[in-house]
Amino acid sequence: MGYEEMWRDLLPIGRVSGGGYRRFSWTAAERECRAWFAEEAGRRGLTLEQDRNGNLFAWWDVPGGRRDAVLTGSHLDSVPDGGAFDGPLGVVSALAAVDLLRERGVTPVRPLGIAVFAEEEGARFGVACLGSRLLTGAIDPVRARALRDGDGVTWADAMAAAGHDPEAIGPDPDLLAGIGCFVELHVEQGRALETPVGVASAIWPHGRWRFDFTGQGNHAGTTLLPDRRDPMLPFAHTVLAARDAATRHEAVATMGKVRVTPNGVNAIPSAVQAWLDTRAPDDAAVRATVADIRAAAEKAAREHGVEVALAEESYTQVVDFHAELRDRIAATLGGPPVLPTGAGHDAGILSAHVPTAMLFVRNPTGVSHAPEEHAEPADCLTGVEALADVLENLIAK
């Protein structure tokens, strides 16, 4: 089954009205994506394995064992109403690249694996790249098991309901020791790429923080304005402060998720939870942006008789991709553009443990994490050829 047929079968899974996707970890849609991947791996005679953290691997093995393996792939989960390409493009392209390598008659001397990492987006349980963080030990398994979704379901309960053992999650040094390098292909998530394919230089530092505003619930019609302790007001101040702080520090800051309690039209909220995503070219700019936003939130909370607390849920420092691997890939592809990105990826988490690199496929709309995310079929096929060229250079020599 070729590239176009794989897309045809994958595209309907988890699609919602409006054209976006909701493929959240351990849900029916995401499980269907896993089954799709298992079937495609089986078609190619690849050895399918799932590690203790819910990550999937399809292996093209070679005699001598799984040592110094080349790993590629991406993820299949999505943000709420996300686009079709973020994650799946890297998985479909990896499978198609295997087909192309076999058509070329390539005989690998290094094992080749295709990974599907779990909970890359953090859309359900709040921590991005959770599967790769667990694999590498970047998150405490006790904390991971206790992570909850919006309905109060824990990662442990969701994993157990899917038939897996949440008590087994955690670092897997043996698996990591067998990986010689990781190359992730991904749709470019802005308008920075003007050619079909580019190479990543670095990932900006980025993190997620949760604000908890606690006030007093009351009647919307009978409570006088001076008597109110409305947490929505300091939250609103904080949203505006995030934009101002990001502008000052040449960063980006987004408050795109909020929960209001009790969330009634005729009730003053008693509590507001809101999540901040901040990214910048360097760590100092990220930290300064968050500090300014926190100060603004605390000031507004005092003025409105509301309590506020801030918790850091995840943070990833700047990732400079492996220079030798990046340059080897660039030379293999004839000198494509090399560019940084503000988007986080599993490649960034793995980079602290194995040499990593990334390929980008052009996104003409510049839109990502939304239904309008797009890559032209011709560019995607160019991406498959580029990935195959890179993998051939790595596994056959």
Kindly describe this structure.
This protein has 397 residues and is of the alpha/beta class. The chain has two domains: 3-204 and 318-395, Zn peptidases (Aminopeptidase, 3-Layer(aba) Sandwich), CATH 3.40.630; 206-316, Alpha-Beta Plaits, CATH 3.30.70. The protein contains twelve helices and 15 strands. Strands 1, 2, 3, 4, 5, 6, 13, 14 and 15 form a nine-stranded mixed beta sheet that branches. β1 (47-50) and β2 form a beta hairpin. α3 crosses α12 and α8 (232-248) packs antiparallel against α9. The two termini are 27 Å apart. The model has no long low-confidence stretch (mean pLDDT 96).
How would you sum up this structure in a few lines?
InterPro entries: Amidase_Cbmase, Bact_exopeptidase_dim_dom, Peptidase_M20. The protein is an alpha/beta fold and 397 residues long. The chain contains twelve helices and 15 strands.
| CATH class bucket of the largest domain | Alpha Beta
User: What is the residue-averaged pLDDT?
Assistant: 96
Number of domains: 2
CATH superfamily of the largest domain: Zn peptidases
What about the largest sheet? 9 strands, mixed
How far apart the termini lie comes to 27 Å
N-to-C order of helices and strands? HHEEEHEHHHHEEEEHEEEHEEHEHEH
**What is the CATH architecture term of the largest domain?**
3-Layer(aba) Sandwich
Tell me the β content: 15-25%
Helix content: 25-40%
How would you classify the helix and strand content by structural class? alpha/beta
Query: How many β-strand runs?
Result: 15
